[in-house]
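Q: How do we represent a protein-ligand complex in a form that can be generated token by token?
A: Start from the inputs.
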Amino acid sequence: MDSSSLAAMNVTLRGKTRHFRTVSFDAKKNAVRLVEQRLLPHEFRVVSVADHRATAGAIRDMVVRGAGAIGATAAYGLAQGAREFTGTSPAKFERHVDRVFARLKDARPTAVDPVNAMLGVRAAMANGEDIAARQELALRAAEAFAEADVRHCAELGEHGAPLIREGSRVLTHCNAGWLAFVDVGTATAPLYAAHAAGRRFHVFCDETRPRCQGASLTAWELAQQGISHQVIADNAAGHLMQRGEIDLVIVGSDRVLGRTGDVANKIGTYTKAILARHHRIPFYVAIPLSTIDWNLRAGTDIPIEERSESEVLGAWGIDGRGHRVRVQVANPTSGARNPGFDVTPAALVTGIVTPVGILRPRELWRRRSELGGPAK
Ligand code: MRU
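Then emit the structure tokens for the protein with MRU bound:
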């Protein structure tokens, strides 16, 4: 995917358009570079993260978020941590890498992409004969993960574009766009490919409380891409479906079980899948290969991140002077419950858009050899 691609992250700021990646690596400074997503859509800034502890912090605090983007950040973070080691003992080096791995893995629990990405980096490192070779291989493997992420997303665009017809009205939830990956995105890839092919359609972005990734990130991306869209309150989708105003739902995922096809995604996805089934509206999930978990056997086994009460009780935005502020919305003496994700059972999913084509959820296991899955 080169910077001239229409589906890539081309950001226009003060009249100038430039290609960015959500996540990249500065090898000279051993720093991870991230688009600071907490500031969007009000400010676009790229930050440099100086060591692996800070990289884990950036994942935890959601400077970077979205399954593929935190996968690439963890892969780079592992390489960054490996390259921080200055000793000569191979055993100490291995223990250091184990600690870096654990720190990055623990930053966020639901998405499987960071674990898959770091396992790939570790496997590549095992081929190095000494510490220096392993450090070098770690960085190469992290770069390879990032490239594969971009390639897979572009392939989702090719396979998924026919789902988006002239005049389609599409609902999406949260942000599974270029900001959630290294570039291009998953749920957005078919939209961007259809748009590049000249089709006109309209997207409804669920605002996606409590952090509002739909209202802030997806809406900003679609505006940057010049795609017709509107933000809707999370509770509005049922009404629009009942009135025949939504033709298709397409979302991303943080973990899809290869054995069952169950889909973990941002809280509220399950509700939309139930609504879509009730109204006979197709419900698609778009994923790169790093989002498949081949180990877990049931959707109920997926760890669901419980986040801070303050996200539910208040909201972030900018004030009249452009300053970023949090406002308290809820009754100040009330508490809140804040599960970050939910699991949509495979039975509610029409199809999974993968880099090898659109599959029924149960086909993932049968086609596992093409999807990078295990032999058994
Ligand atoms: O909490 P986030 O913003 O990291 O959540 C991840 C997501 O953006 C969504 O669940 C998304 O739909 C899948 S990630 C591509």
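The chain has a mean pLDDT of 96. The first helix runs from residue 52 to 60.
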